[in-house]
Specification:
With 271 residues, this protein is α/β, with parallel strands linked by helices. It has a single domain, classed as 3-Layer(aba) Sandwich (Rossmann fold). Helices cover 43% and strands 17% of the residues. It contains eleven helices and seven strands. A seven-stranded mixed β-sheet has the order 3-2-1-4-5-7-6, sandwiched between helices. The termini are far apart.
C-alpha cells in the first residue's frame, strides 16, 4: 500500500500532460540555468556515481537537464512515484541511455550504501515536505550516501524572495486546488548552511537562481498569453528578457530576487 506522499505524486503524474509543456520558454530557461550551475560547480566527467533525487523533470522532458550533463553510466535516479519512475525510464531509453538504475524509493530512506555516491543533484526535491524536520532527515540521508570529498548540489525554495508568499497563502492555494502539486516547507539559507555543517558537509558556494517573480500561475499565464497573441514572434524577446533577469544572480541582492537557493556542499573527510 502506498503512503500518502507517494500516492499524491502518483496522482500528479497520472494527471500531468505528456504531450507538451505549456510553458516551453520558461522550461527552456530553467534547463539552461541548471546546466550552467552544474558546469560551474561540479566536474561531471570525473563523477563515477551520480544520484539525482527526483525524476519528475526527466519523466516530462522539457525541464530536464540530466540527459545533457551526466554520463550515460553511473547515474542513479530516484523518485517516490512508480508512475514517474516508469515514465522517466521510457524517456531515458528513447535517448539510448541506460535507465536500469532508476529506483522507486523515498529520499528520506535511500537503499544505498554509506559513502557510495560521488555527486548528489537535488533540484527542488526537498521543498515538497510538510515539515522542516523532513527536510533535515533527507539532508542527513544524502550526507550518509555521499563519499568523503563528494559533492552535494542542492536547490530549494527561497523564502527570502521578495515575492515569496506567506505559507498560509500557499496552504490556501493548495486547499482551493489551484496548485498542481503539494508545496512544502523550506529552510532559510542560514538554517540550510547550519544543518549541512552539522551533518558533516562544508558549504563551499551558495547563490540564488531563477530570477522571475512569484506566483507561478501569473508568470506562466503571461508567457502563454504573449506567445499566443504574437503567434511566436515575441519568443526571442521573452528569452532575452529571462536571460536579462538571470543577471540578477551577480548582484548583492540576489537572495531577494532568486526563486531558489542553491548550495554546493562537500562532505568532510579524505577523498
Amino acid at each position: 500500500m502506498l503512503g500518502k506522499e507517494a500516492e499524491h505524486w502518483e496522482q500528479v503524474a497520472r494527471g500531468w500532460s505528456v504531450k507538451g509543456y505549456a510553458n516551453e520558454l520558461l522550461a527552456e530557461h530553467k534547463r539552461k540555468t541548471y546546466i550552467t550551475l552544474m558546469a560551474r560547480w561540479a566536474e561531471l566527467a570525473d563523477s563515477q556515481r551520480i544520484l539525482k533525487t527526483d525524476l519528475f523533470a526527466e519523466a516530462f522532458v522539457v525541464e530536464q537537464f540530466l540527459f545533457d550533463i551526466a554520463p550515460a553510466k553511473g547515474v542513479i535516479g530516484m523518485d517516490i512515484s512508480t508512475e514517474i519512475v516508469a515514465q522517466a525510464k521510457r524517456q531515458t531509453r528513447q535517448r539510448g541511455i541506460d535507465a536500469g538504475k532508476y529506483l522507486c524509493c523515498d529520499v528520506k530512506h535511500l537503499p544505498l550504501r554509506d559513502n557510495s555516491i560521488d555527486l548528489v543533484i537535488s533540484d527542488s526535491t526537498l521543498d515538497h515536505f510538510p515539515s522542516e524536520a523532513d527536510i533535515v532527515t533527507a539532508l542527513k540521508e544524502l550526507g550518509r550516501v555521499l563519499r568523503p570529498g563528494g559533492i552535494l548540489i542542492l536547490t530549494i525554495d527561497n523564502k527570502s524572495n521578495l515575492t515569496y508568499p506567506p505559507y498560509f497563502i500557499l496552504r490556501l492555494w493548495m486547499e482551493l486546488g489551484l496548485a498542481p502539486y503539494f508545496i512544502g516547507k523550506t529552510l532559510s539559507l542560514t538554517k540550510l548552511r547550519r544543518t549541512l555543517e552539522e551533518i558533516g558537509l562544508n558549504v563551499e558556494e551558495s547563490t540564488a537562481i531563477l530570477h522571475y517573480p512569484h506566483p507561478d500561475g501569473l508568470v506562466r499565464w503571461l508567457e502563454r498569453s504573449l506567445r499566443r497573441l504574437s503567434r511566436g514572434r515575441l519568443d526571442n524577446a521573452i528569452r532575452k528578457g529571462l536571460a536579462l533577469l538571470e543577471r540578477l544572480e551577480k548582484k548583492r541582492t540576489r537572495y531577494l530576487t532568486g526563486r531558489y537557493l542553491a548550495v554546493k556542499a562537500v562532505k568532510r573527510g579524505a577523498a
